[in-house]
Specification:
The chain has 18 helices and 14 strands. Helix 6 links the parallel strand 1 and strand 2. Helix 4 packs across helix 5 and helix 11 packs across helix 12. InterPro entries: TTL/TTLL_fam, Tubulin_polyglutamylase.
């Protein structure tokens, strides 16, 4: 192709050549390419000028560089995402919380709800681990596992407090003489006091109990074995409040998270109601199903007076009872106020004894205690505390609808966020600004009024305040 022929090409023809796919262009050999370059310089220059005018090579280069830059950034971000995902998987694998269970016949399933909740919260059952995070003990663990539980790491938690037997031991609690607890007498040591009390109140009936809370039966004083070791006799609460003619008790779940300083949480989201299977009247002390709540109790959803509230309106047990009492012209609030006061009274009274036991352990921040307080009511809505249960029943095998209650209680206890997710600053735990800003506290920490001011806080006290603040934020119901 000569110069004259190229010059004859119009703009349209040049564009067609440029836009033609490479596969349609005839390839040139080396000699033809050299000859073409030498003989047609002007044509090539003109061609390049026209191409530049049409496509603006500089703009194209800038666009290409921009696209390449975006692609490089995108590829790098994807690479970082994959690295983060890999690291997260590794972290989850390495730092998955571990728990183990201490109890008899665990395989029978009575702790099924515990396993279910822990699994959902990301815990892995690892009985062989030495770096576990939680020990869930159904049986009291501190006698057989003392050495292991006296050398706990800061992150390890145990679901019992050393010394809480002073609360859950039925004899100790019943004979404590505390408010809301019916008078009781330990046998045979308090035999004389019992006889004296029965003379003073000749119409009172008694029940003889032991720590197993079995074989309970109403008896008159002359029917009681006064020399029976390991038992106690307690005044029977007559004229109980009845619903549809049935006597019942109320179970309230409570958690102690700290002793000295004392922190107690009462679960207000629900209550466990258990009804005697046989109506109270006509009364017969020989028929225990009339006045003793056993394993085969009558559940709330089978009590006709509560059926509408529980089954039709979808209320819980506590709210169903409240609605029923309000419909009867009674104020249920007085029940819950007494119950909370009773729980506080008992735990505060027993705290010094628990603190003494805790002194045998290197740390007192590794423990918590979940228990259930059981109450009965009389017809005037006065409450009576009968017992506090260590490791209360959490099995829904017999009554499946109770599963929700048990799981909610466990979630409230175990479902709080981890230390890393719950950062607490000094501002969150600051208190008594007026006192802390006084001349007394600004110059000295001697006064008790200044002990909680930031300059006077000991590391241990600060840790207690931080823990209390976290628990308050995540206390649930």
């Amino acid at each position: 192709m000569c110069e004259r022929e190229i010059n004859k090409l119009g703009t349209e023809e040049i564009n067609k050549v440029v836009d033609r796919p490479l596969t349609e262009q005839k390839p040139l050999n080396k000699e033809e390419l050299i000859s073409e370059n030498i003989s047609n310089r002007k044509s090539i220059i003109q061609y390049l000028v026209k191409s530049y005018e049409k496509y603006n090579i500089l703009s194209i280069l800038v666009a290409i560089i921009s696209i390449l830059t975006i692609l490089i950034i995108a590829v790098d971000e994807c690479r970082q995402c994959f690295i983060k995902l890999e690291n997260k998987a590794l972290t989850d694998h390495e730092f998955l919380k571990k728990f183990w269970v201490y109890g008899k016949n665990v395989e029978s399933g009575y702790l099924k709800e515990v396993f279910t909740v822990l699994d959902r919260l990301g815990y892995r059952n690892d009985p062989n681990s030495t770096d576990w995070d939680l020990l869930w003990a159904h049986d009291y663990p501190f006698r057989k596992l003392y050495q292991k539980l006296n050398n706990l790491k800061p992150h390890q938690k145990v679901n019992h407090f050393p010394g809480c037997g002073y609360i859950t031991n039925k004899v100790d609690l019943a004979t404590s003489g505390l408010k809301y607890i019916p008078p009781a007498f330990k046998l045979p040591v308090h035999k004389d006091k019992l006889l004296e009390y029965s003379k003073k109140y000749p119409n009172v009936s008694f029940v003889q109990k032991n720590n197993d809370h079995r074989n309970i039966k109403i008896q008159k004083i002359d029917e009681i074995d006064l020399d029976s070791e390991g038992t106690f006799v307690q005044e029977y609460v007559d004229k109980p409040l009845l619903v549809n003619g049935h006597k019942f008790d109320i179970g309230i779940y409570t958690v102690i998270t700290s002793v000295d300083p004392l922190r107690i949480y009462i679960y207000n989201g629900e209550a466990l109601l258990r009804f005697c299977p046989v109506k109270y009247y006509p009364f017969d002390p020989e028929n225990l199903d009339k006045y003793v709540v056993g394993d085969d109790y009558l559940p709330t959803w089978e009590v006709p007076a509560l059926d509408y509230y529980y089954n039709e309106l979808g209320f819980g047990m506590r709210d169903s009872l409240n609605a029923y009492l309000q419909a009867q012209g009674k104020n249920p609030a007085v029940i819950w106020e007494q119950i909370e006061d009773s729980i506080r009274t008992v735990i505060i009274a027993k705290e010094p004894l628990i603190t003494d036991v805790l002194k045998r352990f290197k740390s007192k921040r590794n423990f918590f205690e979940m228990m259930r307080f059981d109450f009965v009511l009389d017809e005037n809505l006065k409450i009576y505390l009968l017992e506090a249960n260590m490791s209360p029943n959490l099995s829904s095998a017999h009554f499946p609808p109770n599963r929700l209650l048990y799981q909610q209680v466990l979630y409230n206890i175990l479902g709080s966020k981890s230390e890393e997710e719950m950062l607490v600053s000094d501002k969150n735990i600051a208190s008594f600004p007026k006192k802390c800003n006084s001349n007394l506290c600004r110059t000295s920490c001697v006064s008790p009024d200044c002990q909680l001011c930031k300059p006077c806080l000991s590391p241990e006290t600060r840790q207690y305040l931080v823990q209390a603040f976290k628990e308050h934020l995540h206390r649930g119901d």
